[in-house]
């Protein structure tokens, strides 16, 4: 048998993990590792919430590996520095990891491949983070990226249904494999504490009340979602927005759940309850994820305007104060502020909420570049993933992927429709809690006697609206029209 290392990255699970299975095949000594570069982690802007979630996922994985008689080795340092050392120290014959689709990760993996070859280590990688390997998507689409969602759907149809999820790693699969664990394992290879990330105290990880990292929690949530699924979209409500205890996206981000497994369970459950083959619309969200990953896979500048062939070069403006108010949830629009505060506290917001604050920051009100929105979400979201985050912002700001009319999300009216009772706003903007519901979405319209009685004076206890949103809408529409006309002239 051989000595295998499986390098866990965005696949923190034992189910549907083909690279992990390949690692254990005919293996006598097995080292499961996670590589964490603490220096760049400390320097990064990523919130305490996301680091804490990652640590919980790693703790959970370590607990699962213990059941199999193994342990997780968290290796501190940069992969390109630590792997050659481990190859030598552990006499490694085989390295496995999940195939990466993002340009930066691919670049790193090319270097790793060379290091493995130099050390005579066999390297195996399989795709499981996506339903379809991005290279196959390109190949099927005549070597071109799918530029519209419809094109992506056609490509998926040509590729056919993705492979069913592979076997879960359990004691049978693990077999007689041995993981050598020393007495100093915890201090040498243990999962770090949040405090190790520099200035990120546990008290700041407010999201831990709503989220628990790891595969078992992910499975529990998926089972719950499938039990409740009537396969009819519920109307949007405060309850939909307050779904941090039910949502799945952070678990997909860290690979505690595989998309193939979700798809498989969804299809089976649909056929069981509805007695027929599911409609394509059931998979739309998963397909959007595939689409954004595919378009990002060959575009290292996906997250910025410069050098990005997909991004329209719209002349956005710099408004640092406005950006800061938006980020802190102090815009004076309760619906927008509630969303931004939920994002900061819980590390997650509903898709509609992302559209609302994205529209407000960019083409809807403030005319600030989507790149700033990308950075803010990258810092605060538990589920932030480079390809998806950039893809979403390009789309939200009308910088790319746009076909047909794009909705304007009014910072007042949309809130009234989705949160008519004000339950959502009251949860995150407590200073407005005692205001009568009819003024809750527009507190500036409340007579001063009502404001006094509610203990919330607009301009003192809660900010005045930072802009007149209706005037700004007209201005932004005009700016977009001017840009489109200039573009048309340039393109003849």
TrEMBL record:
GO cellular component labels: cytoplasm; nucleus
Pfam families associated with the record: DNA_photolyase, FAD_binding_7
All copies of domain Photolyase/cryptochrome alpha/beta, residue ranges: 2-131
Any single biological process term in GO: circadian regulation of gene expression
Similarity annotation: Belongs to the DNA photolyase class-1 family.
SUPFAM superfamilies: Cryptochrome/photolyase FAD-binding domain, Cryptochrome/photolyase, N-terminal domain
Cofactor section: FAD
Lineage, highest ranks first: Eukaryota, Metazoa, Cnidaria, Anthozoa, Hexacorallia
Full protein name: Photolyase/cryptochrome alpha/beta domain-containing protein
Keyword set, alphabetical order: FAD, Flavoprotein
GO MF annotation: an example: FAD binding
Coiled-coil segments: none
Site (Electron transfer via tryptophanyl radical): 316, 370, 393
């Amino acid at each position: 048998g051989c000595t295998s290392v499986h390098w866990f990255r965005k696949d923190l699970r034992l189910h549907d993990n083909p690279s992990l299975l390949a690692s254990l095949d005919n293996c006598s000594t097995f080292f499961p590792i996670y590589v964490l570069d603490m220096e760049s982690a400390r320097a990064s802007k990523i919130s305490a919430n996301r680091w804490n979630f990652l640590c919980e996922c790693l703790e959970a994985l370590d607990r699962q590996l213990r059941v199999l008689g193994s342990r997780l080795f968290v290796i501190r340092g940069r992969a390109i520095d630590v792997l050659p050392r481990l190859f030598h120290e552990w006499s490694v014959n085989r390295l496995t990891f999940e195939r990466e689709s993002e340009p930066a990760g691919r670049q790193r993996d090319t270097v790793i491949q060379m290091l493995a070859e130099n050390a005579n280590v066999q390297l195996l990688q399989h795709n499981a983070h996506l339903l379809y390997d991005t290279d196959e998507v390109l190949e099927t689409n005549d070597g071109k990226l799918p530029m519209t969602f419809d094109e992506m759907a056609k490509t998926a149809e040509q590729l056919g249904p993705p492979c069913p999820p592979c076997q879960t790693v359990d004691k049978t699969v693990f077999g007689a494999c041995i993981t050598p664990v020393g007495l100093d394992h915890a201090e040498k290879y243990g999962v770090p504490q949040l405090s190790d990330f520099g200035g990120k105290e546990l008290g700041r990880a407010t999201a831990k009340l709503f989220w628990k990292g790891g595969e078992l929690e992910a499975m529990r949530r998926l089972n719950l979602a499938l039990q409740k699924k009537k396969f009819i979209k519920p109307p949007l409500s405060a309850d939909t927005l307050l779904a941090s205890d039910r949502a799945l996206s952070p678990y997909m981000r860290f690979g505690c759940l595989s998309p193939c497994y979700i798809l498989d369970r969804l299809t089976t459950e649909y056929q069981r309850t509805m007695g027929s083959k599911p409609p394509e619309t059931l998979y739309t969200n998963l397909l959007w994820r595939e689409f954004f990953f595919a378009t990002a896979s060959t575009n290292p500048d996906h997250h910025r305007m410069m050098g990005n062939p997909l991004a329209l070069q719209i002349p956005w403006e710099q408004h640092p104060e406005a950006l800061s108010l938006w980020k802190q949830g102090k815009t004076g629009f309760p619906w927008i502020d509630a969303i931004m505060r939920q994002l900061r506290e819980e590390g997650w917001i509903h898709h509609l909420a992302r559209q609302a604050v994205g529209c407000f920051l960019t083409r809807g009100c403030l005319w600030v570049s989507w790149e700033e929105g990308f950075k803010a979400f990258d810092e605060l979201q538990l589920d932030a993933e480079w390809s998806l985050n950039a893809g979403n912002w390009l789309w939200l700001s009308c910088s790319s992927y746009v076909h047909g009319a794009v909705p304007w999300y009014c910072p007042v009216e949309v809130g009234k429709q989705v949160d008519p009772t004000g339950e959502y706003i009251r949860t995150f903007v407590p200073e407005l809690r005692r205001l009568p519901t009819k003024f809750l979405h527009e507190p500036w319209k409340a007579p001063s006697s009502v404001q006094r009685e509610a203990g919330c004076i607009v301009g003192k206890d809660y900010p005045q609206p930072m802009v007149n949103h209706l005037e700004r809408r007209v201005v932004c529409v005009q700016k977009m029209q001017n840009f489109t006309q200039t573009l048309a002239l340039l393109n003849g």
